[in-house]
Design brief:
Elements: E1 38-47, E2 50-60, E3 65-69, H1 76-84, E4 91-96, E5 109-112, H2 124-134, H3 139-153, H4 168-181, E6 190-194, H5 202-217, E7 221-225, H6 229-235, E8 238-243, E9 246-252, E10 258-265, H7 273-281, E11 288-291, E12 299-304, H8 312-325, E13 328-336, H9 340-348, H10 397-406, H11 446-457
Parallel strand pairs: 3-7, 3-8, 5-6, 6-7
Antiparallel strand pairs: 1-2, 1-4, 8-9, 10-12, 10-13, 11-12
Helix pairs in contact: 2-3, 2-4, 3-4
Length: 458
């Protein structure tokens, strides 16, 4: 079973290619889709009874920079060794470039281990040429590739020096140059890098970042394992976070800010809760909703916002009005930005009931939603809870997004009602296209006003 990773289709995927020129025009034209560069499905590995990896599943599409994060001992290095074929998985399947033959993919992969070892009596150039010849290049091509790679990583001036005179940072750059040389004139199709910026000064980290971005521009796919969250956030399009051998988060970066509305139910609010949630879903295709299934459970509504979202302010106002008309007290309204540090700290923080542990297929059962880490309310967009209303635990819209990315595409589950309303409700509006116009605001929706007046009359 393939894990939903939230990744976009491969940019080089070939579409609309006829299999045969004799296909009648009336028949549908077959298409071919390129498989992910890396596919992991339910991969587990044990060392003498210790679970190093437990049911990890994710895909990496061509052209992506995928960040693999996690605390020490989370299983990152084991995962890389399994992908490279250095170790065999106990359970699950791994495919590289669509094939289960991992050894056959070695010629297309550049690898930088966490701790590189060198023949220190070689000069930098001699070592580079030696490695290029091992990769199958001719003597002439090896010299050309060595020159280009050493220049890319910024140590061409030290090419004639013995490696034992290199600093730790220079050796790290040399290891990156070796990984780049596998592809010959161009960077390799896949780069697997374990802590590439370890031991580098800030200027060295900038060089590594620019090298990786240039490799991406030339078509390379990159799997990056690092503890440097700032660098990962700058260059990665998607990250997976390991904790205790489980994949506890898989999320895309650089998403826009979102509006989080937290509300608590008043008496009889649950009678119309299913209709309320269905109405909120109509506001935008990216609305995410969680909670609100019991009278003692807050409701969390996450809405997209920003200049790129049509009618963002009207959508927020409609959601708030709908909640009020449906007998919910608004506890808070705030803007949240997604930052990698918040994502990481929330994912690796153990919870009391271990709710963040993943299921056997590698998907998280539930990420910690009560930590409040990364909660960044806007001062001009925050409302105070009414007196006497319960104060729910803080929950980031990130949790909703990560939960939907790791589970089925539908982000909202159905909610049961405590009983039907005594007032008949009209049919809901058809779900509009978010790019055109916003559905009728909740304060003009007669079903919520009728219910409110009925409650006030009683």
């Amino acid at each position: 079973m393939e894990t939903v990773s939230g990744s976009s289709p491969a940019p080089n995927a070939e579409e609309g290619v006829p299999i045969s020129t004799s296909i009648p025009a009336s028949d549908p034209i077959p298409t071919t889709a390129e498989p992910p560069i890396v596919q992991m499905d339910g991969v587990s590995k044990q060392y003498r009874g210790v679970n190093a990896l437990r049911g990890v599943s994710f895909n990496i599409q061509r052209g992506e920079i995928f960040g693999l994060l996690g605390p020490n001992g989370a299983g990152k290095s084991t995962l890389l060794k399994l992908i490279l074929g250095f170790l065999n998985a106990d359970n699950g399947t791994i495919k590289m470039f669509g094939s289960s033959d991992l050894t056959a993919a070695h010629a297309r992969i550049g690898y930088l281990p966490e701790q590189s070892r060198y023949h220190s009596n070689f000069t930098g150039r001699e070592y580079m040429e030696f490695q290029a010849r091992l990769a199958g290049l001719s003597a002439h091509d090896a010299r050309t590739v060595a020159t280009r790679a050493l220049k890319m990583v910024g140590i061409e001036d030290a090419a004639k020096r013995r490696i034992h005179t290199y600093s730790k940072g220079m050796r790290q750059r040399l290891g990156l140059a070796v990984a780049l040389s596998v592809g010959g004139d161009t960077p390799p199709e896949l780069l697997i890098l374990d802590e590439p910026a370890s031991g580098l000064a800030p200027e060295g980290q900038v060089v590594v970042r620019e090298v990786l971005l240039e490799c991406k521009r030339q078509g390379s796919t990159i799997l990056l394992c690092s503890h440097q969250l700032t660098e990962v956030e700058r260059i990665c399009s998607e990250v997976g976070i390991l904790r205790g051998g489980r994949l506890v988060a898989l999320t895309r970066l650089h998403d826009e800010a979102r509006v989080m509305i937290v509300a608590s139910p008043r008496p009889r609010a649950m009678e119309v809760a299913p209709h309320l949630l269905e109405y909120l879903e109509q506001l935008h295709s990216l609305v995410a909703i969680k909670g609100g299934t019991r009278e003692d459970e807050p409701l969390y509504v996450s809405l997209p916002t920003g200049s790129g979202v049509p009618h963002a302010a009207a959508m927020k106002a409609a959601a708030i009005r709908a909640l009020v008309d449906a007998r919910w007290d608004i506890n808070s309204v705030h803007i949240e930005n997604r930052d990698l540090e918040s994502i990481y700290l929330r994912a690796i923080r153990p919870t009391k009931d271990k709710a963040a542990d993943a299921s056997p297929n590698g998907r998280p059962a539930e990420i910690d939603t009560a930590s409040g880490v990364g909660h960044k309310p806007s001062m001009e967009d925050t409302s105070q809870a009414p007196a006497g209303s319960p104060a729910p635990a803080s929950m980031s819209s990130l949790d909703l997004l990560e939960a939907s990315a790791m589970s089925d595409p539908l982000p909202v589950r159905s909610v049961s009602s405590n009983g039907p309303s005594t007032t008949p409700l009209p049919a809901l509006l058809e779900k509009p296209d978010p790019r055109t116009e916003l559905p009728q605001s909740a304060h003009n929706d007669v079903r919520f006003n009728d219910l409110r007046r009925e409650g006030e009359g009683q």
